[in-house]
Design brief:
- The structure is a homotetramer of 256-residue chains.
- With 256 residues, the first copy, chain A, is of the alpha/beta class.
- Chain A has a single domain (3-253), classed as Glycoside hydrolase/deacetylase (TIM Barrel), CATH 3.20.20.
- Chain A is built from 8 helices and 11 strands.
- The first copy, chain A, has helices spanning 22-25, 43-55, 81-101, 113-121, 123-136, 149-156, 190-203, 230-243; strands spanning 3-10, 31-35, 59-63, 76-78, 106-109, 141-145, 160-166, 205-207, 213-215, 218-222, 247-248.
- In chain A, helix 6 (149-156) links the parallel strand 6 and strand 7.
- The interface between B and D is medium-sized, with 14 and 14 residues.
Chain lengths: 256, 256, 256, 256
C-alpha cells in the first residue's frame, strides 16, 4: 500500500497574537511543523501546540525561520551561512526541549518562509540547513521543497529527505510553484487539490500547469497559503486518500 | 580530597555587541553558564562559546533569562509561572542543540539575573524553573543560589542541586549577598576573595559579614559583578585551591 | 452642554498578527490611542491606523508600553524611572512622525497595560511618564486612570489631564476597577454600561459597586477588556450619549 | 571660505552592550548620526547621546536602520517599500522626541548599514527613504552616499541633500568604495585620509584609486569602518581642515 504524509504549519501564534485554526487543521494531518519563536511561536505556544500534536498522534517537526517576527519570517535576509546554520540548530533545540517537556519529540525539520524560499535555489543556505540538522540529530527527517537545493543538500549530508509538494498551488514547468501573478497559481477548489495530490502520488512526479511531468517522489503534502479554504482543502485531501486506499502516516513511519 | 567547582557566566555578547573577557575567564573555571539568547547570546555566539568551553575541558550549562535583551535580563518581570517554565525549557533546549552541534553537551542549568533573583525568594518561580529542568532532562544539575527557594524546589523535584556562593560578594546574616548600599558589599581584593572561598569550604557554610555561620554545602563558586578585577579574583581563587590541595572539577564530576 | 470623550485602544496588530476590530470600533469613538511598537503596532500598522483615525475625524494619541511584545505589555517590569521616561518619549515621537506623515497629529498620551497599572499607584513611574510627556510636547493631553498617581503627576507637571473611566468594568470602594476574581467585575450588558457612564457623568464621580461616590471629573471613557461585546458596549454608550444630549468630542476639543 | 562637515555615527550601544568611543569622536565632528533603536540605541542611550551632542555643539541626525539588532543593521532585508517608508519615519520621530526632551533637535537623516547600502543602488528603497524624510519634516537634510540613488531621490523630493564621502575608504572607478577584497580598500594612515579629504574638497569630486575624477559636491565626511584608528583619522582630518582654512560646521549651517 502506498503511504504518504500530510503536514501543516501550526503554532504560529505569538503571545496574545493569535493566528491560524490549529485545532481544526491538526485533525487532518499526520505531521505538524511548529514555529520555534523566530517568526512566531513563543515557548508557551510551542508547548501547547506540541501537546495538541501529541494528543492527536501527530508527529512534530521544527519550523525554523529567520529571526523576523515583524515580517513573519517572510522577508529575505542575507546573512552568512555559518549564522544560518546555528540559527537553525538553535530553533531545533528549543522545540526539542519543549517537545520533551510535554512528552513528545521532534522528528523532522522544515524551514519556514523566506528561509525555505531562499534555500530552494541557494545551495549555500541549503547546505547550512542540512548541516544544522545533521549536527543536532542525524535521525531528523528533512522536509524540503521538492526538486530544491535543499533536497540535494540533505542527501549529500546523508539525511532522510521528505520531498514536499503543495495541495493548493499549481506548478510551472521549472518545478516551482506558479507565481501568484498568474490566475491559476492558487487552488481553492478542494476537488482540484485532491486531483493534484492523487496525480502527484500515482505519477511519482510533479505535474505542472502545462501538463509536464517532473519525476520526483513526493512524500508529504502541505497547503501553502492562508486562504480560509485551507482546512477544507486538507480535509478533502485526507478523505480522498482514505477512499483511494492510500495510507497517511506520520513522517517517521514512512519508509526512507 | 575535597573537590569544588568554579563557574563563570560567559557568552554574553550579542551579534557585534561584545561583552566580557571570556577567553581569559574560561582558563580558570571548570564550568561555564552560557547565555541562551534571551538576555544575550545569539546562536553563533553560543556556538563559539560552547566550542571554547569544550576546548578548555569546561562543562557547559544553560544560563536562562527573562526575554529581556534591553535590560540584559536584570529587570524583574512578573509573568505566570507556566510561562516561566517553558521560557526556561526553551533556552535549555536551544543551547543543548548548539552544544551538540559543536561536540559538547549541556550538563547544568543556572538561572540568570532577575530570574534568579526573583526565584531566590519566590517559591513559585523556583518551582517553575525546577520543573522545567526536570521536564527537559532530569540529569541536569541545578546550580542555585545557596539557601534559596531554588535549592528547595530542586530537591523537591529530585534534581541534583549545586549550591552556589560568590567569591566577590559578602553575605549578610539573612544568607543573602550584602546590598551594594554597604561599602563592604563587593570584594575586589583577590586575597579577601580567596579567604572567603576557603572558609566557606572548610566550614561547610556561608560565613556572613558579622561572622555568623549559615551551614550549607557550597559546591560551586562564581564571581558576581562586572568589576574589571573579576578575572584576577577568579584566577587567585583557582590558584589558592590548588595550593590548599582542594580539587576543582567540572560540575558533573562532583559527587552528588 | 456637557461634552465627554470616548476613546479606544487600536492599532494593536503587529505585522501579520491581527488583533482587534478597529474598523468597527473607530466609528463610535472620538479619540484613539494607538500602539507604538513596544507591545504591538509596527510602523506600517501605525500609519494605517493613524490614517483611519484621520479619515473618521478621530483624534490620535500615543499608547506607550513597556518593551514587551511577547507579553503584550501586560507584564509588570521593574526598571529605573529614567529609563521609563525615555521609553515613553521615544514612543510618543515615533507615533508623532507617523501621524505627521499621514496628515494628522498626536494630541494625547495614554499609557498601556502594565505600565499604566503600575503607574496607577507608583508615584515614581507616574512622574516619569508625566515628565516624558512634558519634555516632548507640553500641549499633549495626559489620559490617565481616574484618581491615580498619574493624575497627580500630570497636574504637578502642569499638563492637561483627562481622567478616564471604563464603560465595562465596575469599581470597588478604593476607586480601582473591581478585581476579576469577583463575578461583577466585567460589564458585558450594554445597558448596564450605559447606566454606569451616564451616572459617572451626571454625578461627576465614580460610583462604586457598593454605591459609594468618589468625586472626580471623568473626561473620557474606554472599554477595558477584550470581550467580544466590546464594540456593542461602546456603540450603545455612544448612542445613549446622543439621546441624552451629551456631546462627544475628540479630546483636544474638550475644555480643560 | 569653503565650509564642510564631519559627521560620525554614534549612540550605537544598546542597554549594557557598549559600542564605540563616542566621547572621543564627538570632539572632532560637527554632526552626529544617532542610532534609533533598530540596529542599536535604546531610548536612554539615545537621550544620553543626544545630550552629549548638544553639549558639544554637534548637530543631531537620525540614523535609521532595518529592524535588525542581531545583525546590527548590516544584513540586507527585502521588504516592500511602503514598509521601508514607515520604518524610517518611525525612527526619525523616535529620535526627534528624545532630542526635544534633552533640548536639541533632529536636523538630518542618514540611513544606516544595509539599508543605506541597498538604497545606494535601489531606486525604490531610495525613494521610500526620501518620501519618509519629506513626510515627517521637509526641512530635514538627507545625508546620502555620494552619487547614489539616494541623492537623486532626495533631489526629486525637493530635499536638501548632503552628499557624503568617507575619509578612510578608497573609491573605485564606479564611484563606490573599493571592495574590501582589495588591499587598498581601507585607509588607516591619517595622513592619507587627510589627503583624500582635501583633494575631494578642492576638486569638487571623488578621486578614485586609479585617479579618475567623478565630479560631485561632497558636503560631509565620515569614517566608515570600525578600525581602532578611526578617532585618529577623524582628528587628523579635523586638524588639517583648520590648517587649510577650510571651515567645519554643523550640517544646518552649510549653505544648500
Amino acid at each position: 500500500m502506498t503511504t504518504v504524509n500530510l503536514n501543516a504549519d501550526i503554532g504560529e501564534s505569538y503571545g496574545v497574537f493569535h493566528i491560524g485554526n490549529d485545532e481544526e487543521m491538526i485533525r487532518f494531518v499526520q505531521s505538524a511543523s511548529i514555529a520555534c519563536g523566530f517568526h512566531a511561536g513563543d515557548p508557551s505556544t510551542m508547548a501547547q501546540t506540541a501537546r495538541a500534536a501529541k494528543d492527536h498522534g501527530v508527529s512534530v517537526g521544527a519550523h525554523p525561520s529567520f529571526d523576523d517576527l515583524l515580517g513573519f519570517g517572510r522577508r529575505e535576509i542575507r546573512m552568512n551561512t555559518r549564522d544560518v546554520e546555528y540559527l537553525v540548530a538553535y530553533q531545533i533545540g528549543a522545540l526539542s526541549a519543549i517537545a520533551t517537556a510535554v512528552g513528545t519529540a521532534v522528528t523532522h525539520v522544515k524551514p519556514h518562509g523566506a528561509l525555505s524560499n531562499m534555500a530552494e535555489t541557494d545551495a549555500e543556505y541549503a547546505a547550512a540547513i542540512a548541516r544544522a540538522i545533521k549536527s543536532v540529530d542525524r535521525d531528523l527527517i528533512f522536509v524540503a521543497i521538492a526538486c530544491s537545493e535543499m533536497v540535494k543538500a540533505g542527501h549529500k549530508e546523508g539525511l532522510r529527505v521528505a520531498e514536499e509538494a503543495f495541495c493548493d498551488r499549481t506548478y510551472d514547468d521549472s518545478g516551482k510553484i506558479t507565481s501568484r501573478r498568474f490566475a491559476d497559481a492558487v487552488i481553492r477548489d478542494p476537488r482540484v487539490a485532491v486531483q493534484q495530490v492523487l496525480s502527484f502520488i500515482s505519477e511519482g512526479a510533479i505535474i505542472t500547469r502545462t501538463g509536464k511531468r517532473i519525476s520526483t517522489p513526493i512524500r508529504t503534502f502541505c497547503r501553502h497559503g492562508d486562504e480560509p479554504t485551507g482546512v477544507e482543502v486538507v480535509r478533502a485531501v485526507r478523505e480522498s486518500l482514505a477512499k483511494q486506499g492510500i495510507g497517511a502516516a506520520p513522517l517517521p513511519q514512512l519508509g526512507f
